Amino acid sequence: MNIDIFKDILVPVIGGLGIFMLGLEFMSNGIQALSVTKMRAFLAKAAGTPVKGVIAGTLITGVIQSSTAMTVMVVGLVNAGVVALRPAISVIMGANIGTTLGNGLIALPLGPLGLILAGVFSLVYCFSKNEKVRNIALACMGFALIFYGLNLMTGGLRPLRNMPEVMDVLSTLQADSYFNLIKCVLIAALVTAMIHSSSATIGIVMGLGAAGILDWTTAVAFSLGADLGTTITSWIASLNLSKNAKRAAYAHISFNIIGVCITVPLFFLSIDVLGWAMQWFGGDPGIPVLVDGKETFPLVPVAVGLFSTFFNVFNTLLLFPFIGVFERVLARVGRTDAEDIEDYSTPKFLDRKLAGDFAKAIPAVQQETARHLQAGAIFLQIARSAKTAPSDPGEHYLATDILSRDIRAYTASLMQEDLPYEQLDLVASLIEEADFTAALTESMHQVARRVKRETFSAQAQAIVDVALNKLDASLRDILPNYGVKEPNMPAGHVSFPEVAELRARTLSLGPNAGAAERGTILALLGSIERAELLIRRIDDERKSVNRQAVLARAAARNQPYQRPTMDEGMIPAPAE
């Protein structure tokens, strides 16, 4: 049999692989354009507990059809502080299950219809003016191209069976022993790591299996390696992100590595179970079917899809009880003393159950706002390079910004139309205070950032130290338990120079400081001046409403009326 390697093998295999991966990209992009913002918001709300995290990860990945995109999204949300490490681990577990839906769909024998369906949806995409319709058409076009690409690859790989040289090489890739099984797993992991898509690797394996190039047991072994190799993308995505984001990526890696290590010793037993289960899905995947006079193995993709689903579900069920252990172990990875500081990205006092009780919800907001102020004051510790302070002012500011948004959202939710005017006025005052606190925190972040970025001479450092102490002392007006320790001296004995005086000192440094140093100090003094203005504004806002009196009246309204008794000192009226 004469085989034209270029026309009969290279063209359909390379073209089919390209069309297959393009289809994956189109489908993922179309679905994400339609719903990724909603999916991200849903994930941030839904991933509150490990069980909810697994369900959310499964559902969202099942929709967007990309565990890679899902895992990268989770790593990004962890980096932003929206999702904590514990629920993130459970979401990643769910993502591994959700992606198996796509593997099952790929196994469907829809290849011949792929091209015509892709053509129909591409016409819709080209001529439609509605963006939503275009995104739907893009997703459907990608879905159709997946099948057409897989069909091309299968046809192009089939002639390899008639080439002894190729079969001799591929005969070494037989999962007939544990050594060869591990070799197949590692090769598949390497291929997946290079192309960043477990779905693409599994698609290639399905094509090789359907063409009879790989026996179905070996094809299943390759799918196991694809689950291992897909972890590389989440790791790459986390390289320049926060430590918690890196830990989420490490969770994905360790989760899949542990699963593979557990499954490999049980592989041949699971193959026997899979062979038995295949009787409900068409029969023995190793029996060829004649199509146009050529042998093909259409049940191999089905077996691969089933095994991939079984592996990820089994892995999740097995490791789910140990999510707490994962979190504790990963929390120690790369940990420093600075990380023992309180996590300010998560509210501590804003209990949704209190939102319906005005007298209890308002004190909760006040406590959380005070906590936000404490978080802002930590920027002074960062500026002084304290050992217990966070090393990255930007990361700490991100945490305070998330807390600020939560405070504003919670406080705004208290503004119900049926509230008395004085209570509405109090809520408005708290919203303004929260806004001023956020602005103050931003100014203090600028203070820390400017100090950390510059190396000062001794004379310039002296001015910086006085400026920081001045701001620290000013904070005591609104945060009595923080700042420079009160000196044991008469009131008013210790005073700090005004910003104008510090500015004059900076300008007169002359040769004792470079231009960059003086510029940094001047900018620093501007941030301190704004911070002090905001401190006074917060103090005035607190005094603008008699908060205690409003709360006392609100609490009195919530108390049920009780008839006084004789024991409480009530004097009975004389009988007439």
TrEMBL record:
Q: Identify the domain of life.
A: Bacteria
Which residues are listed as membrane-spanning?
12-31, 43-64, 70-89, 101-124, 136-157, 178-196, 216-241, 253-278, 298-326
Q: Where is this region: Disordered?
A: 557-576
Q: Which GO terms describe its molecular function?
A: sodium:phosphate symporter activity
Keyword Chaperone assigned to the entry: answer is no
What's a GO cellular component annotated to this UniProt protein? Answer: plasma membrane
> How does this chain sit within the bilayer?
Multi-pass membrane protein
Keywords of this entry: Cell membrane, Membrane, Transmembrane, Transmembrane helix
Q: Which GO terms describe its biological process?
A: sodium-dependent phosphate transport
Q: Which InterPro entries match?
A: Na/Pi_transpt
Task: Specify whether Membrane is a keyword of the entry.
Answer: yes
Q: Name one Pfam family in it.
A: Na_Pi_cotrans
Where in the cell is the protein located? Cell membrane
Q: What is this protein called?
A: Na/Pi cotransporter family protein
Species whose genome carries this gene:
Phyllobacterium endophyticum
